[in-house]
Structure to design on (120 residues):
């Protein structure tokens, strides 16, 4: 059995990547639907991912956009919203499934942050 590649380990050790992809999906859906709420959610998720990835060093912003909290809470809210859309008959539209995938990615990012003990 071959060991996992180094790139796979690096990606799994960077939950910010998953939250960033989820943020992009949410912003795309928000722009398509002209939904300010989705665009703002995506911006908050993206800001949290950038701050957690150590690109920006502002203690006040890091305290405001806590990675674990934002990933878990917004992932859970997106999950509930996408399940509600699927249950109401909107399951055939790509928007619903994009939000569902974004919610799963966000929850996975929160899970990986908890496993790696990153509560910043």
């Amino acid at each position: 059995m071959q060991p996992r590649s180094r790139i796979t380990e690096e990606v799994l050790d960077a939950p910010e990547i998953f939250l960033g992809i989820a943020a992009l999906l949410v912003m795309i859906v928000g722009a398509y639907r002209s939904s300010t709420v989705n665009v703002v959610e995506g911006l908050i998720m993206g800001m949290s991912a950038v701050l957690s990835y150590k690109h920006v060093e502002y203690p006040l912003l890091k305290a405001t956009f806590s990675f674990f909290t934002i990933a878990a809470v917004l992932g859970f809210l997106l999950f509930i919203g996408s399940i509600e859309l699927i249950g109401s008959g909107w399951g055939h539209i790509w928007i619903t499934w994009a939000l569902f995938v974004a919610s799963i990615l966000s929850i996975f990012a929160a899970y990986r942050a908890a496993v790696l003990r990153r509560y910043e």
About this structure: Helices lie at 6-12, 15-33, 36-52, 59-64, 67-90, 94-115. The chain has one domain: 16-115.
